């Protein structure tokens, strides 16, 4: 998740907005815990659910929401 954030040049607000596209809520506090060093007392590992929702939101962010035409092609 850290590498994705750097590669995409996203801020915490950008990540929260991408997660909102898939109706997943995360706070800045939760994100800051994920991006801390592993030896920090407030470090929290990035869970599968957060990463999965971020990637799904990123698809919507880049391609736009699915339309009926897209559903027929799939």
Explain what you see.
The protein has 74 residues and is mainly alpha-helical. It has one domain (2-73). The protein has five helices and no strands. Helix 2 (12-20) packs across helix 4 (48-63). The longest helix is centred in the last third of the chain and has 16 residues, at 48-63. The two termini are 28 Å apart. The mean pLDDT is 90.
Task: Give a quick rundown of the structure.
This protein is elongated.
What keyword list fits this structure?
elongated, mainly alpha, 74 residues, 5 helices
Strand content: under 5%
| Secondary structure: helix percent | 55-70%
Q: What is the terminal separation in angstroms?
A: 28 Å
Largest sheet: none
- Which spans of ≥5 residues are poorly predicted at pLDDT below 50? none
Report the structural category: mainly alpha
Ordered list of secondary-structure elements with their pairings:
Blueprint: H1 2-8, H2 12-20, H3 28-34, H4 48-63, H5 68-73
Helix pairs in contact: 2-4
Pfam family, one: DUF1456
Organism: Sphingobacterium kitahiroshimense
InterPro entries: YehS-like
């Amino acid at each position: 998740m850290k590498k994705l954030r750097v590669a995409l040049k996203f801020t915490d607000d950008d990540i929260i907005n991408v997660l909102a596209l898939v109706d997943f809520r995360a706070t800045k506090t939760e994100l800051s815990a994920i991006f801390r060093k592993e030896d920090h007392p407030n470090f929290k590992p990035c869970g599968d659910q957060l990463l999965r929702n971020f990637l799904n939101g990123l698809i919507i962010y880049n391609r736009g929401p699915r339309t009926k035409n897209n559903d027929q092609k799939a």
